[in-house]
Write a structure and sequence with these properties.
272 residues; alpha/beta
């Protein structure tokens, strides 16, 4: 505590190595060893703290080459699920990265994962979890309508683990962003990080961004677009994520603290 307080203006270079996805390190608030906390917020998240898994070190260079960005932004068959922000993000990604849309079905996503050939993978939609086990997170795909019934379709961490491998010699994994907003349904409101972070990082992703818990749509859109804008301007990942969190906070929702970034703090994005 005393060490972090002494170096409180340098936490933008802080990386936490951990294999525990549920501890909210981003919510740790710095305060002096003695006396009152002070009035200025000093969350580790607002300083740009990032994470990584134990046992490896993240790459410095993130590269998005022409034609190698993909977006998964479902238009849901179930009318109770709206994804207007996903549609907006798909347009943003197309304009900024030339991202190509992926058919948001299990077959379409599995084909993408098995085929590879992308440097940026962005999902924008809803997160979900089993009502009996809310810790088992997944993201909601388009769904299939059969008559008056919609059969929900999902992407799970197991799907990622079974279909991805970027760990070969000379292979650089992509930047992966899961921007999963809340469904608004009871029992389906928890994190998309958990198993997804481990699955994508074990597969060799160069960076992974998602939420510790579900967030509202507008702050979610503001966060990811600001993050990309800052990275495209040349800001390192820690500074870019701090500015993105600040922008999401200014959008008027406390869930700006929800975002977790697995990356090297000085990682930079190159658009080729």
């Amino acid at each position: 505590q005393a060490y972090l307080w002494k170096h409180r203006d340098l936490v933008h270079d802080l990386i936490v190595y951990t294999d525990e996805p549920r501890v909210p390190w981003e919510l740790v608030h710095l305060k002096p060893p003695r006396g009152k906390r002070g009035t200025k917020p000093r969350f580790l998240a607002s300083g740009g703290m990032v994470r990584w898994q134990l046992g490896s070190f993240p790459p410095h260079r993130l590269q998005v080459r022409r034609g190698r960005a993909r977006s998964i932004c479902p238009v849901y068959a179930n009318p109770m699920f709206k994804n207007d922000v996903g549609v907006a993000e798909a347009g943003y990604l197309r304009d900024r990265f030339g991202a190509r849309p992926v058919t948001a079905t299990p077959v379409g996503v599995e084909r993408l994962l098995r085929g590879g050939g992308f440097d940026l993978l962005h999902f924008s939609g809803h997160g979900a979890a089993d009502a009996d086990d809310i810790s088992v997170a997944k993201v909601l795909l388009r769904g299939q309508r059969r008559g008056s019934t919609v059969h929900e379709q999902y992407l799970t961490a197991n799907d990622v683990s079974q279909n991805l491998d970027w760990t070969g010699p000379g292979v650089t994994g992509p930047l992966v962003v899961l921007n999963a907003c809340q469904t608004g349904r009871s029992g389906e409101l928890l994190t998309t990080v958990g198993g997804f972070a481990k699955a994508f990082l074990d597969a060799g992703a160069s960076a992974f961004v998602s939420c510790l818990w579900s967030v509202h749509e507008e702050p979610a859109r503001v966060f990811v677009e600001t993050l990309y804008d800052e990275l495209l301007r040349g800001a390192p990942m820690s500074r870019a994520s701090a500015r993105a969190r600040e922008a999401a906070r200014d959008a008027g929702d406390p869930t700006w603290l929800a975002y977790v970034v697995y990356a090297r703090p000085d990682a930079v994005l190159e658009k080729v």
